[in-house]
Amino acid sequence: MNVHIRVFTIGALAKATSTSTPTIRYYEEIGLLPPANRTASGQRTYDETDIGRLTFIKQCRDFGFSIDQVRVLADLSISTARDCTETRDIAQAHLDEVRAKMIELRALEIRLQGFVTRCNDACAGGPGSDCVIFKDMAAPQAKSCCG
Fold first, then answer.
1. Closest among 30, 73, 74, 31 to 53, alpha carbons compared
2. CA–CA separation, 96 and 79 (whole Å)
3. What would the 3-class secondary structure string for the chain be?
4. What is the model's pTM?
5. Mean pLDDT (the chain, rounded)
6. What's the CA gap between 4 and 20, in Å, rounded?
7. Torsional sign, CA 42, 43, 45, 51
8. C-alpha–C-alpha distance, residues 14 and 55, integer Å
9. pLDDT digits (tens, 9 = 90+) for 98-111
């Protein structure tokens, strides 16, 4: 039986996974991707397994998982000895972080809306240096966006 294995260059891998070639090199450098096979001339080559692993890594990053979390998730994804609750726990912790960030962003949205409304009501169209947004942001009671 003649099995044909598809081989991809780094450019083809990047295109197939919507990832940049520097990102692929970086993931290899930090060990998220195994070192690529090399042709006699030193060109990197990849196969379908690499496409799957890189797609997985990219999805994790798109969900906002840290590099360290991706490393653990990638290890868990091929482990038969570890319990999938580890994966759930990592996802739950990340979900909790996302929800906390959403609360902070909602507070920021409210503050910014207040600045915009005050500007519209008080000074829109006047000189930029007289904009109430600058005065509001410089006032001692103007705390950071989320605190």
1. 74
2. 25
3. CCCCCCCECHHHHHHHHCCCHHHHHHHHHCCCCCCCEECCCCCEEECHHHHHHHHHHHHHHHCCCCHHHHHHHHHHHCCCCCCCHHHHHHHHHHHHHHHHHHHHHHHHHHHHHHHHHHHHHHCCCCCHHHCHHHHHHHCCCCCCCCC
4. 0.74
5. 90
6. 26
7. positive
8. 10
9. 999 999 999 999 99
% of the chain beyond a pLDDT of 90: 70
The residue to which tokens 């503050």 are assigned: 111
Rounded to 10°, the helix 10-17/21-29 angle is: 100
Place of tokens 């990849």: 46
Give the residues across from 8 on adjacent strands.
46
The residue whose two tokens read 């990592």 is 90
Q: What angle do CA 51, 91, 105 make, to 5 degrees?
A: 105
